[in-house]
Amino acid sequence: MPQTNTFIDFAGGLPAKAARQATLDAARYTSRDFMQREWDGMWTRNWLLAGLECDVREPGDYFVFDIGRESIIVTRTDEGALSAVYNACQHRGNRILTNERGSVTAIACPYHGWTYELDGALKTVPDAERFSQGLPCESLSLKPVQVDHWAGMVWINMDMEAGPLSEFLGVVQDLVAPYRCEDMTLVGDQTVCLDANWKTCIDNFNEQYHVDFIHPQHASFVDCCNASNELWPYGHRRVLVEGYVTNPRYGVPDEVPPILQAAIRPLGLDPADFKGRVSDIRKAVQQRKRDVGAALGFDYSGFTDEQVSDVLQYDLFPNVIMTIKPEELWVMRPRPHPTDPDKCFFDKWTLRISVSADAARGLSLVGDPMAPPANAGDRPAHEVFTQEDVIAGNNSMTITIDQDIHLLRDMQAGMHSRGFSRAWLNEDESRVQHFHDWLDMWLDGGPMWRRAADAQAAE
């Protein structure tokens, strides 16, 4: 069967299908004018993933979120609340914090010593008596942005009038809740600098049409050709891909493929037992994981069989890609370059459950049973590298993403050709079209979820 595409409205009748049909022309990916439209009409009005809650656990902890030309400081205040403010001193505009994360007792500008409380309130000004016009603390405090948290992640919105994060995410919150992402441990933090527009990255992760051609290994352990696509309001998307199966397009093999063998052995399953019945592996894994989980102290009771075995990807507008399994979460986030539409920064956080292996029994729910366990006390270093480092084999974001990185710069380069005018999509690229349709909705001014909520309240 082919892929399926389903539009799913949010509660209250908010439609999933956008009232626009975007044309994916080359200028959308290469034009500085379009880049500016995105900044004015979308980036500054949307809820954006800023960082992880694990980096702001204690009072005084902070991280800096850079998006385009903007910089935001996120802190944990003495009262335990989250605060987010622009990283610009109100004296003369100096960027205050330049380290990506740390811990402070106050936010102090290194240029002239203006000091702010952890929530951004102006605290002290050297030689205050020399300001004859006075120092109105309220207007000279750091300018706030909206901040909220969900699933162990911190989100910000530069539009102070935008509706709440909970309404923006809608049903996604309930669907992701069983995975308890907030209890997972960060084990990898990577950023690669790409010669590609941020939307070129989004498009790549929003279709399986390319999988047979640049990810041939996938045919041995997932069924991408029969994926189910779900399309939600505001531009959110989800794809469901069956795992622990082979791609039926190429027939079911008699022997268990090597990649699938490596996936089931850590669960204590013998590939030889599945000779001639490879199709039975998925159901066997669904039960076996529950048994191994009980032995290792991980509870699968809140998950459906499909969630236990399959891979789900949530694409949250505008730029969050969450590939999620009960044991592991990848959070990926392409960020626009401040000035160049042909470049972006691609972030990837890897999080895992903390109890996942028993080396003595050779059992593991994720990865090598002999690998060291995730340690909540040791934050991994932030690796920053270039696409050339990936291509040369010096750095890796997993074989699948590495393969994508090899192609993304060529995709971007082709956008500049006089021989290319616009993309021509098929039905299996529905998530690509849905994303761009909603991007155009935002750029055209709405409808915005705060307006939808206001309209419903008035009825």
Task: Characterise this structure.
By secondary structure, this protein is of the alpha+beta class. It is built from 14 helices and 21 strands. The strands form five sheets. The chain has a nine-stranded mixed β-sheet. It has a four-stranded antiparallel β-sheet with strand order 5-4-3-6, with no helix packed on it. β16 and β17 form a beta hairpin. The chain is globular. 40% of the residues are buried.
Structural class: alpha+beta
Number of strands: 21
Give the radius of gyration. 24 Å
Helix content: 25-40%
Distance N to C terminus: 43 Å
The largest sheet has its strands arranged as: 1-13-14-15-16-17-18-12-21
The chain-level mean pLDDT equals: 93
What is the second-level CATH architecture of the domain at 179-246 and 301-437?
Answer: Alpha-Beta Complex
CATH superfamily of the domain at 179-246 and 301-437: Naphthalene 1,2-dioxygenase Alpha Subunit, Chain A, domain 1
Strand content: 15-25%
Principal-axis shape equals globular
Question: How many helical stretches?
Answer: 14
Low-confidence stretches: 455-459
As for the CATH topology of the domain at 179-246 and 301-437, it is Naphthalene 1,2-dioxygenase Alpha Subunit, Chain A, domain 1
Largest sheet: 9 strands, mixed
CATH domain class name of the domain at 179-246 and 301-437: Alpha Beta
